[in-house]
Amino acid sequence: MTYKEANNISIKDYLNSLGIQPVTEKGSYGMYRSPLREDNTPSFKVDYNANLWCDYGTGEGGTLIDLVMKQNRCNAYGAICRLEQGETASFSFHGKDLPERDTKRQAASPIEIRRIQPLQNPALMRYLQERGISPGTAAPYVQEMYYRIGGKPYFALAFRNDSGGYELRNPRFKGSTSKDITHIRQQGEPRDACFVFEGFMDYLSFLTLRMKN
After folding, report:
1. What is the number of domains present in the chain?
2. What is the domain range of residue 12?
3. Does 138 reside within a domain?
4. Are 62 and 110 in contact (CB under 8 A)?
5. Residue 19 belongs to domain with CATH number
6. pLDDT tens digit string along 77-117?
7. End-to-end alpha-carbon separation of the chain, Å?
8. Global pTM value
9. Both 129 and 184 in a single domain?
10. How buried is residue 197: exposed, middle or buried, by Cβ count under 10 Å (0-12/13-18/19+)?
C-alpha cells in the first residue's frame, strides 16, 4: 500500500472500524468525540469530502496517516503497515476500493493565518536550539506564522510545501494549513542521489549536522 492509497481510505470508515461513531453529522462532515484524548463534547471534525480531520481541542489535524500516527505513536511507515494489515476483525482494508479523490476540492482549513514573517521570535529560536538545530541554519528555510484556531491566537515555525501551504511546528503543536511534500533542489550539477526526510525538522537537523561536520 502506498502513502497515497492509505490516505484515500475513508477516515469515517476507519473510525467506524474502531467502533467510533459521529455524535452529529451535517452533510459533508461529522463531529466526533476525539479518539486522541478525553473529550466530553464533540470537538473532533472529519470532513468527508476532503477526507481530513481536525481536533479543535488541540488544534491538530491532517490526513488518515497523521491520525494513525498520533493514535499509535508511530511513524508514517508504521501507520501504513497498520492500515494495510487491518486494525480490527470487523473491518479489513485489504481489497478495499481506493477511489481517486478530487485534489481540487480542499477542506476549509481551521487555521486562520494572520501573518507570516522571517524567523525572529525568541521562543521559536529557543525551541530550535532545544532540538539541536541552529536557528541560523534554519532561517533560510523556515518562517514564523501567527494564526488563529477557533478564535485563539497561536504562533509556530512555518515551512512552505509544494502546494503553497505550510507545515507548522511548535513545542505543543504539529500540523499544517494543507498537506504536501516539499522538493528542495541543490545548486550545481544534477545529482544521482535523493535524500528523503519524514519532516522538515529532520531536514533542519541534517543541515545543522552537515554544517558542523
Report:
1. 2
2. 3-85
3. yes
4. no
5. 3.90.580.10
6. 888 888 887 644 334 343 344 444 444 444 456 788 899 99
7. 37
8. 0.51
9. yes
10. middle
